[in-house]
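Hello, quick one for you while I still have it in my head. My current little project is about how a certain protein chain folds up. You're getting the sequence in one-letter code plus the fold written as tokens. Would you mind checking whether the tokens look sensible for this chain? Here's the protein in full, and shout if anything looks odd to you:
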Amino acid sequence: MITRHLTKRFLIFSLTALLLAAGVVAYAEPIAIPSLNIGVGTATKPNDVAVTVQIFLLMTVISLAPGLLIMTTSFTRISVVLSFLRTAMGTQSAPSNQIILSLSMFLTFFIMTPVWQQINKEAYQPWKAQQISQEQAMERAVKPVRMFMLSQTREKDLSLFVSLSKLQRPKNAADIPTLTIIPAFMISELRTAFQIGFLIYIPFIVVDMVVASVLMSMGMMMLPPVMISLPFKILLFVLVDGWGLVISSLVKSFG
């Protein structure tokens, strides 16, 4: 019972964060920042202790919210593919982790903007205007996110987690719980990212093999092939407009 209650609060907070993000993306009116006063006092009623425990539980849920927001968007696929690209080129720390994460974040904003605009239009604005209740806003907000995740999730991964959760065979996608869709979506994203990473590796491996063969034929076995192949891989990547190809392929893969 406690786990189900925490899960419900976790989803409510996360969807509220999505609503706020949708409002920002859609250039909604500035949101007033509330004041917060925190104090320590003596509890005189049992209810005071219960409220304090709820606050600590809520803080724990808040710390997990960024992970949920990241793993339910396109961030996972983009960041993994960019990491594969850096490893395949052999540049080690260039671009740095901060640059990869920043680029992944802004590409995620670019890809997820239509979803967040739909949340803003159908859930956040009516809730802000007090036309619908909070529960109705949450139900409306989760639908675009579910549709996005289901469109990128393989049926095999979805059936795997449905069977693992020991649920009855769902009649349609609406019968599948959101907590079952999320891990299936994450597994599918990792699979797709690894497939793209494999395709990225192929041309760079060819360059390494050619350079290694040339060095062996010249008898220069003591010279590391990586030192010679790295400039050629960078040159090849620049000549074919590698960044444009990788980014366009990533964005189109969510179409």
Notes: The chain has nine helices and no strands. The two ends are 40 Å apart (CA to CA).
